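Database export, one record per block. Field names are fixed; values are copied verbatim from the stored entry.
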Amino acid sequence: MKSAILFRRILIFFVFALLSNALLAANTYRKSLWVWNTVDIVGITSEENRLINECISSAITDIYLFIQYNDELVTSKLPYQKFIEKCYCNNIRIWGMNGYRSYFSDQCGPSYYFSIISSMVTYNSNSTSKQRFVGFSGDNEFNQVDTWDCTIQAKVNVFHSGLTDAALSTTAGTGFWKSTQKQDRDSLLTDWVRQTDLAAKICHQAGLEYGVASMNWITGKSFTNAAMGNQTTPLYAKYKGVTKELYKHIIDYVDEYIIMSYHSNVVSKVVPMCKDVLDYTNTLHAATRPRVMSAVETHCGVGAYVSYCDTQNSTSKNDVAYGISQHFSYLGTNNASYSGVAIHDWKGGYQILAPASANTNAPGCVLGIENNETSTIDYLAPNPTNDKIVLQLNNTFGEVIVTVSGIDGEKLLTINSFSDGNLNQEIDLKTLNPGIYMLKTTSNLQENTFKIIKL
């Protein structure tokens, strides 16, 4: 009899393990935040706490932290180590990030860009696993008229914004960096692919991920493609003898591809902006394709309907949260490669949206279940969730009491007792508002706390 019961428990355990992992894979999305003002945050306790507390309350999973080669990342790494360790304690991954329009190899050369990544690699090699960057994200926009040419110390329109591919001149003398306008653009796009390839190699050799943020209009289907003179066909690039769509070249090398899908109208604007990239990445093997993320703009002064900050009746963090939930619903459905949303950006927008981020209290250290080696729970999924959490209890702890509280400590749900004869439990969270909650398990042997996210 005992052996039969044990067999059933083992069978139930594996069934719920598979179910939990499947649910987790289907419902977990990343939510990232660009932070450009690193020097105003790292090493300043109140600003670090303000950022981390907002990330906790907004369910942000990743921060893209702007770094430079000549900052304290290598010369005085301790502030970064302390900050990243605080983020690690709250399940927030830290990426290095940089972006500028003269990093392509046409004139100035990308050596400075690569040196920034190398400084991050050096930092990681001298830090513990809890203090390390997980990857690097490049935000390089090549189309703007303020592309810097360091040979003449001036801004030039080397992309020739406003002209379609067909309208580019092939007459010698019309180019800035090359002989013709057509050669200018072709060279620029090839350089972007080359830089992506080399940067990814540097990161991968160091055990880091590499990602890019890319303009949505390069696929040719966009509501903001004026930079290409309303061209309705994709940009193409030739690299290593292969000519194909630029975005497909980039996708070949990256682990994460962010589409700058900046618009507050998700259904009619954002979804078409993302369609081509998602259609392509959905066809790639799950083990090798990049994570594809959409993006929202919160920076003030960008323009109505492009930025939530400038859009009437949409200027609060709740409005952004609702918009992001639409991203998840409309882009996550039937798109296996879709992985979440990136928010642009912290200081210039999201920090000041109502309610303004003001919590400078020291954040606690709340590790997720994957960080707990000895736990009253073996599996907890899906997390984030829309309505319910499935628990697989560890039967070595006997009776377990489960409570769910807000981040302010207010107890909201109590499940009086679970016995070790009833290991699999489902907790209904439908009555809770979207946000961050703490699930606490108490047994005779120990207590554990887990962060859960209600979408």
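Remark 1: The chain has two domains: 2-11+367-454, 36-350.
Remark 2: The CA atoms of residues 11 and 332 lie 31 Å apart.
End of record.
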